[in-house]
Amino acid sequence: MDLLRSLPLGLYLENPQTWLHKLDPRVKLIWLLSFLTSYVVANNYWRVLLVLLLIIFTVFAKIPLRVWRQQMGWLLILSFMVLAIGAMSPDGLGVSYQPRLPATEQVLTPPANGEKTKESPKLADRNKEYNYVLFHQGPIKVNRRSLDLAISLSTIVFTLIYSTNLYLLTTAPEEITSGMESLMQPLRRFKIPVTEITLTLTLSLRFIPLVLEEVQNLVRSVMTRAINWKKLGLKGGAKVWLIVIERLLENLLLRADQMANAMMVRGFTSPNEHQVKWQDLKLRTGDWLAIAILIVFWGLRIAFGTEVS
Fold first, then answer.
1. Number of H helices, E strands in the chain
2. Are residue 244 and residue 165 in the same domain, yes or no?
3. For 235, how many CA atoms within 13 A lie in the half-sphere containing its CB?
4. What is the pLDDT of residues 113-156, one digit of tens each?
5. Do 152 and 265 fall within a single domain?
């Protein structure tokens, strides 16, 4: 069991360097926020399009299959489960529905050129008439509202989790903090500690692999002891896992203390005395192209992706 490989959430992929890696972190952050905000008040076609775009970006970026296959697979399974459960769930309206017109209703066409009134067909094809209930077989019932809510919920689960993970996968923690610090510069006028916030974010991102490593080591230590869980019972098993969790917290606090001591030894007391220099950010040709595509992205969102009430 290797959590650092099977569950690479929040980890940076150093090699190979794809075109997503080479984009400016500020541009990628704006793209991420666009994915997360364009979902609001959007129709289902746009929500499904966001999912397809994330998959297309992953494939065309030539990220190794071993990196995203398992996590995307589990995430797609989770989204399909949410879709199935949401579609079969009641819509909550509690209203019985029936056809708008009687089965024998006939519509009269208005007279034209002095001709006599003629009867039109019975609403033409009955197969094309509006049906609120899309599928009903036994206890399974799918209607339009429940399906709409299911698509909305399942797509937002995939978009929220995978877009953030793709950003962390292709952007180094130092690049994330430098990009955020650059975008947050106007907040300095309101005496907001921008450097302290970005430094805290950097340390938290660097701490994620340490947490996964500690969890992995503790799980391996429990597995190597060949504990007979049946003999322990529910109470004994819970006591063992409480001991493991306590040990995990102790190890994480010890790691945090070691990081703090390392910073103090290097003379870091505050950003005013120890200047934090991340990297020199500069927009290149690929970044400007990404910005232009982003403008088209929002144009399509406003023109075709808005939900009609």
1. 10, 4
2. no
3. 0
4. 555 544 455 545 555 566 777 777 777 888 888 888 889 999 99
5. no
